[in-house]
Design brief:
single chain, six-stranded mixed β-sheet, alpha/beta, 10 strands, four-stranded antiparallel β-sheet
Length: about 240
């Protein structure tokens, strides 16, 4: 059965001043998939996510989410449409408690669903429940990553975009975060994943795209990319 297209990016071109950062990028994410963007540092992966979520603008082309054009939609309205973005570096509200951070993620929801969302996040991340009164700035890196993901889940997204969720985490925590990513996907959340740890990303993804200096140079099933000699040499350490 063919899955419907959830996100359709066409002809994306993004500039930072005079720097041509993203060059004619196009790709699709289908309902129920985990799709990963891999590439070296500075290849443009985070810029693509920021452009999809409305924080940056593409000079050309279109970004379609749930068959609606979102290229010129304000970021908070994009969240309301069901697209959530967990930024690189977590960006939790350091001086707010865990619970307050989660409440900030629920601004699109009505009172009835906020309680359900909170219960779901605490079920997925028991550590956050234990620390629900603690200030977010005092949490460990791994706990902050869980909080950033939990905050995004409070908006009940149809598409969850994750930017470098494993960055700076100990190997055991990386495994835990990736297990949660798989569980979320099995529960029905479609995921677009940007990740420096290409091997880990491809091990959980259905499909992947390889980005090099702002251009997509390859796109295939995750299994094929894991076997590809060029990808192995450049991104998988042999």
């Amino acid at each position: 059965m063919k899955r419907s297209i959830l996100l359709d990016v066409k002809n994306m071109n993004v500039y930072y001043g005079n720097i041509y950062a993203i060059k004619d990028v196009g790709f699709q994410v289908h309902q129920g998939e985990i799709v990963t963007l891999i590439g070296a540092n500075g290849a443009g992966k985070s810029t693509i996510l920021k452009t999809i979520s409305g924080l940056l603008r593409s000079k050309t082309g279109s970004i379609s989410f749930l068959e609606q054009e979102i290229s010129n939609v304000q970021p908070h309205n994009i969240v309301k449409q069901g697209l959530a973005h967990v930024p690189e570096g977590r960006r939790v509200f350091a001086r707010m408690s865990v619970t307050e951070n989660l409440e900030m993620g629920s601004f699109t929801q009505s009172g009835a669903t906020i309680g359900e969302g909170m219960a779901d996040v605490f079920h997925r991340f028991p550590r956050l429940k234990e620390r629900h009164k603690q200030l977010a700035g005092t949490l460990s890196g791994g706990e902050q990553q869980m909080l950033a993901m939990g905050r995004a889940l409070m908006s009940r997204p149809k598409l969850l975009m994750l930017d470098e969720p494993s960055m700076g985490l100990a190997p055991l925590l990386v495994e835990q975060i990736f297990e949660i990513i798989q569980e979320l996907n099995e529960g029905g959340t479609t995921i677009l994943l940007v990740e420096q740890n290409a091997r880990m990303a491809l091990s959980v993804a259905h499909r992947g795209y390889v980005l090099e200096t702002g251009k997509i140079i390859a796109g295939a099933s995750a299994a094929d990319l894991l076997r590809d000699d060029t990808v192995k040499k450049a991104y998988l350490g042999g």
